[in-house]
Amino acid sequence: MTSPEPPRLVCNKTCAVYTEDASETDLAKHDEDDYVEIKEQMYQDKLASLKRQLQQLQEGTLQEYQKRMKKLDQQYKERLRNADLFLQLESEQVERNYIKEKKAAVKEFDDKKVELKENLIAELEEKKKMIENEKLTMELTGDSMEVKPIMTRKLRRRPNDPVPIPDKRRKPAPAQLNYLLTEEQIIEDLRTLNKLKSPKRAVSPSTPEHVPSAPLENLSQRYEARIEEGKLYYDKRWYHKSQAIYLESKDNTKISCVISSVGTNEIWVRKTSDSTKMRIYLGQLQRGTFVIRRRSAS
């Protein structure tokens, strides 16, 4: 009696199922190995690329490095150019300020030097004039400025004493008097003083008594002139330093001037034509030797 066929068929199907599962497992394992191998190959390629780029970077031939270095070099050169321009502008500005300050310092020094010299000259001239006035006053009043010798007591010389040697000293030079006024002005002033000091004369019969003698002040026109607080008061007007004036003399000469300084008893004026300076005393203004007129500064 033969065995039935159906059970044999079931066995064959089961073996077929087992064979398919093994094939799928082997295939999956093979794919995984390929993936790992591909991944390893990609890693090696990237590593080799990075090493190659690192080598190029060290040698300075990397394209990205050269590109960025070119950009940095341009920025560096632009910054240096701007710094040079800024330095040049600042240097020019400092040089201009230096030249300006130097000129101002030189001008101030020259002005101060001229002012100091004029003040010292005016002070010395004032002292000189005072000494000369005192000398002139003493000569007119008869006083003497000579120094009287000191009386010394002389003792009798003993027989054995040596003969005294005479003292040969140089005699002091006589004092010289330098007049600031002209000879005509000095003579005129002396005549006026002599008239004031001379006694009144008797009226002669030929002189009418009803005719009064003219006062001395009316012989020549007198002007009011004085100096207060560095300003000149003349003919009811005030004049100050750097003011433009006309200077008129007795010979009708009219000069355009500028007051350069005001002293204690005189003023200094500068001619506008040749910039020469003149010194005018208060006495000359009061006597009318010089007359001052205002003028416009244009």
Summarize the structure.
The chain has about 300 residues and is an alpha+beta fold. It has four helices and eight strands.
Can you describe this structure?
- One of its GO terms (cellular component) is nucleoplasm.
- Residues 40-141 form a coiled coil.
- Keywords: Coiled coil, Nucleus, Repressor, Transcription, Transcription regulation.
- It comes from Oryzias latipes (Japanese rice fish).
- It is found in: Nucleus.
- This protein is of the alpha+beta class and 298 residues long.
- The chain has a domain at 225-294: SH3 type barrels, CATH 2.30.30.
- Helix content is 52%, strand content 14%.
- The strands form 2 sheets. Strands 7-6-5-4-8 form a 5-stranded antiparallel sheet. It has a 3-stranded antiparallel sheet with strand order 1-2-3.
- A hairpin with a 5-residue loop joins strand 6 and strand 7 (277-281).
- The termini are far apart.
- The model is unreliable at 143-149, 172-177 and 199-220 (pLDDT under 50).
Q: What is the secondary structure topology, with strand pairs?
A:
Elements: H1 6-59, H2 63-141, H3 183-197, E1 225-228, E2 231-234, E3 237-239, E4 244-249, E5 254-262, E6 266-271, E7 277-281, H4 282-287, E8 290-294
